[in-house]
Amino acid sequence: QEQLVESGGGLVQAGGSLRLSCTAPGQPFSTYSMGWHRQTPGKEREFVGSISWTGGSTYYSDAVKGRFTVARDIGNDTMTVYLQMNSLKPDDTAVYYCGADSQSVIQLTDYWGQGTLVIVSS
After folding, report:
1. Looking at residue 15, what is its pLDDT?
2. Concatenated DSSP letters of 47-59
3. How many CB atoms lie within 10 A of CB 14?
4. Which residues contact 36 (CB under 8 A, 6 or more apart)?
């Protein structure tokens, strides 16, 4: 069930940066771990990065570690999760999905968004 809304995708040259945003209502997502997966045609969805529900821990795949950063901002009624992507590579081209999970900081399958496309040109 989709209750998250992603934005910020687009076309960027290799070496460039993009920031994705994911907006969720403040409750119950303040107690959910949130983060990002990505998927390319013909491949399974893969974990990219996440932040724990406390905000105290972040997790990244080896493919993006050191280049991508997950952060969040909790407002009065809305939580926004960001994926800052630097030093982008053509292999980062994918549809990026925001997810939320009450149990797992990796699976993020309780709720998800419709996805936003990122294309990195060489």
Report:
1. 98
2. EEEEE-TTSS-EE
3. 14
4. 20, 22, 48, 49, 50, 70, 81, 83, 96, 97, 98, 99, 108
Start-to-end CA distance of the chain, whole Å, equals 35
Give me the sign of the Cα torsion angle 50, 53, 20, 22.
positive
- Give every residue of the chain whose pLDDT is below 50, as ranges: none
Structure tokens at 18: 């993009």
Q: Using alpha carbons, select from 9, 10, 15, 8 the residue that is nearest to residue 88.
A: 15
Distance CA 92, CA 63 (A): 9
Let me know: does 108 contact 34? Beta carbons within 8 Å.
yes
Are 57 and 51 within 8 A, CB to CB?
A: yes
